[in-house]
Amino acid sequence: MKLFKSITLVSSAMAMFFSAANAAVPAEEAAKLGGELTPFGAIQAGNADGSIPAWQGGITEPPSGLGYEGDGDHHPDPFADDEVLFKIDATNAAEHADKLSDGVKAMLEQYNDTFYLNVYQSRRTHAMPEWVYDNTKKNAVNAELVEGGNGVVGAYGGVPFPIPATGQEVVWNHLMRYTGAYRSYIQTWVHKDPGGAETIEVADAEMQLPYYDKDGNIDDWNGEILLLNFRYKEPGRKKGEFIMFREAANALESPRRAWRYLPGARRVRRAPTIAYDSPIGPVGSRTVDDTRAFNGAIDRYDWKLIGKQEMYIPYNSYNLESDQLKLSDILTPKHINQEHARWELHRVWVVEATIADGKRHVYAKRRFYIDEDSWSAVLIDAYDTRGNLWRVTNNHVKNLYENPYTDGKTLVIHDLQAGSYQALGLHNEQSYYMYTQKPMRDDSYFTPAKLRTRAKR
Q1: Could you tell me the CATH number of the domain that includes residue 197?
Q2: Overall domain count for the chain
Q3: Which stretches in the chain have pLDDT values below 70?
Q4: 212 within 8 A of 132, measured Cβ to Cβ
Q5: Which side of the chain, N or C, has fewer Cβ within a 10 Å radius?
Q6: Please, are residues 430 and 186 in contact by the beta-carbon 8 Å criterion?
Q7: Distance from CA of residue 79 to its chain's centroid?
Q8: Which pLDDT score is estimated for 22?
Q9: How far apart are the first and last CA of the chain?
Q10: Structural domain boundaries enclosing 169
Q11: Predicted pLDDT of residue 266
Q12: d(CA 411, CA 401)
């Protein structure tokens, strides 16, 4: 608790110091990157008792001897020999309460006979390419929030705010985190209802991040951070349907542009509802902005930076995504099979979002726990308009060491009120995992004209 208090006070002091500017940090602060702080802004040192280690560079390439065959291959677990240190369940949750999110506590209580955390040795595996580190240091002294905090300017090709002072800056770090420049993959979503019935959706997907074009620069960048398209393969009623959208760093000046192709209509149409809290996924069991843990415009909330805290979070989840497992091994009633999940102690930024005056969203409040290393939101608690805990997101992250970067590939959203859950990104039974090192697509590929051409093939 002493460490938590000290970190919170430091964060509060930083917030007071920078709140007036709400922008870039002084050069002397940025100079800490790569020394006292990691190149991406985390505390380089471990914690007082050593249960969180110092960052020593992370995993920067595929570890030898694992049998990894190259880009697209499933990732063998570099820590397969690690043993469980201890288990947290309903009987001892109180002993660890200061390091558990409210959502995890609620799951331990509600599913007291089946849900638990297998806690392993903490390993700070996150790493990114050197050029991303270089850009991050530049961003530290140049990046600023636009008025109101709903956009970013002055940043390119790296973490925009590696030394954040506000909740908005932390969340923008999540939205603009490095997850490669291009990837192609098969996306599988499974909704599991309380009775055990499953609803499955499968799509071919491509994602591109123009902000992380290594050969680009801030002067030529068009301001977009994410291009995405899905082509549904299952279920039969959605086969051939396309969804595509383009996302900018200044969400209010350039709102998300989305399109949908419906095979029955044989037309590409604008899809303005693919945003915020519109229901999506199997049986509409998540919101659009639940995808990728959280995505899209942030203007419907007021954001508060609570500080930094040591928490048990899902991390280094290689076993969960192993091609040696079948979906039936993972998708057990009530929640995923916890024997295949790995939890570790890490430091996270804690940010709370409450609905802004005059705005609406089905979630009246959200609390985000964002990994200090990767800037991925790893836990999210979402509350309904009556103030009751509703949905709990566990984002199981790992280092994709061929690139490298750390991000969630199995995202699980639990509806505590319905007793159901939805798992996204299940790659276990696929012939390939994900291609991350292919050349970026030409910008015209993510346009309605190209979408129409691809849809008619």
Answers
A1: 2.50.20.10
A2: 1
A3: 1-23, 457
A4: yes
A5: C
A6: yes
A7: 22
A8: 54
A9: 59
A10: 2-455
A11: 87
A12: 19
H helix runs in 303-408, sequence order: 327-330
Distance CA 310, CA 400 (A): 24
Instruction: Extract the tokens encoding 221.
Output: 């960048």
User: Which is nearest to 227 in space by CA: 11, 452, 443, 4?
Assistant: 443
**Do 403 and 437 form a contact (C-beta atoms < 8 A)?**
yes
Spatial distance between the Cα atoms of 278 and 176, rounded to a whole number of angstroms: 22
R_g of the chain, CA atoms, integer Å: 21
How many angstroms separate the CA atoms of 228 and 370, rounded? 23
**Which residues are CB-neighbours of 359 under 8 A, at least 6 positions away?**
299, 300, 301
Residue type for 135, please?
Answer: N
What the block records as the tokens of 302 is 């007021």
Q: Which residue has the tokens 């999210």?
A: 380
Amino acid 264: pLDDT: 87
Q: Tell me which residue has tokens 């979408």.
A: 451
Helix, strand counts (H, E) of the chain: 7, 20
- 405 contacts 374 by C-beta, under 8 angstroms: yes
Cα distances from 187 to residues 18, 231, 360, 410, 436, in angstroms, run 41, 10, 30, 10, 14
- Judged on CB neighbours under 10 Å (0-12, 13-18, 19+), 63 is middle
Q: Give the separation between CA 160 and CA 137, rounded to whole angstroms.
A: 9
Model pLDDT for residues 62-94, shown as the tens digit of each residue: 999 999 999 999 999 999 999 999 999 999 999
Read off the pTM: 0.94
Note whether 189 and 282 are within 8 A (CB).
yes
Q: How far apart are CA 380 and CA 16, in angstroms?
A: 26
Query: Any idea what DSSP says for residue 277?
Result: T
Identity of the amino acid at 300: R
What's the rounded Cα separation, in Å, for the pair 428 and 337?
14
CB under 8 Å to 61, separation ≥6 — which residues? 401, 402, 404
pLDDT of residue 419: 97
> What pLDDT score does 16 carry?
38
